[in-house]
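Re: that backbone. Tokens:
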């Protein structure tokens, strides 16, 4: 670890042998995970080290979805780490890590846009919704950029709010009229989505009312 500390400091933007931020972050994470100095928490600390390197390169604190993307791609992540350790060739690892960081940054920007759109939507609908409609919208927003799995159906709305079928249909139709939701599909395949959220797929539109 002492050698790692010296290398990390020397390759910082103000160090003796500075490295480009993306390469330094990727190498720092790889080196730390290879050393694996603790019984627990090496992954979390290793991600923090990489994010620290990225922030130092940017000259300010950075906000990325790096941990989220690593978790989602963890099978490929572990395979890349193992390959780099076995071959001692860091090139493929750095290529993979760079694409991950770029994807994480894009996801973060998308998430910020989503939060801003949520705020604008609440402002526009203020005073026009009942408690059931507000609860359903809040639930969809908490699902985040990736959306409510399968979309919001009338039956899900009923389960979420306790509304009877006729009331659920009326509430959902009103939300569509106000622009608070968009509707896809027909009959039992009807689904409702945030106007600025996930794009429905054909499979979503074909989903059954009971899902």
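Recovered sequence:
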């Amino acid at each position: 670890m002492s050698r790692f500390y010296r290398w990390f400091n020397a390759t910082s933007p103000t160090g003796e042998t500075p490295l480009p931020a993306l390469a330094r972050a990727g190498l720092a994470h790889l080196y730390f995970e290879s050393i694996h100095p603790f019984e627990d928490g090496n992954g979390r600390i290793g991600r923090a080290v990489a994010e620290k390197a990225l922030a130092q390169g940017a000259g300010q604190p950075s906000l990325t979805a790096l941990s989220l993307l690593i978790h989602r791609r963890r099978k490929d992540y572990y395979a890349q780490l193992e390959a780099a350790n076995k071959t001692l060739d860091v090139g493929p690892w750095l290529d993979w890590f760079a694409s991950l960081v770029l994807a994480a940054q894009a996801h973060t920007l998308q998430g910020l846009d989503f939060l801003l759109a949520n705020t604008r939507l609440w402002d526009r609908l203020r005073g026009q919704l009942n408690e059931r409609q507000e609860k359903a919208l809040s639930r969809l927003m908490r699902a985040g950029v990736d959306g409510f799995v399968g979309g919001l159906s009338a039956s899900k709305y009923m389960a979420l709010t306790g509304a009877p079928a006729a009331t659920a249909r009326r509430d959902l139709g009103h939300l569509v009229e106000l622009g608070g939701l968009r509707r896809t599909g027909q009959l039992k395949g009807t689904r409702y989505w945030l106007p600025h959220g996930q794009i429905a797929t054909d499979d979503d539109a074909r989903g059954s009312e009971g899902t």
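Residues 22 and 98 are 6 Å apart (CA to CA). Residues 200-211 have pLDDT under 50 and may be disordered.
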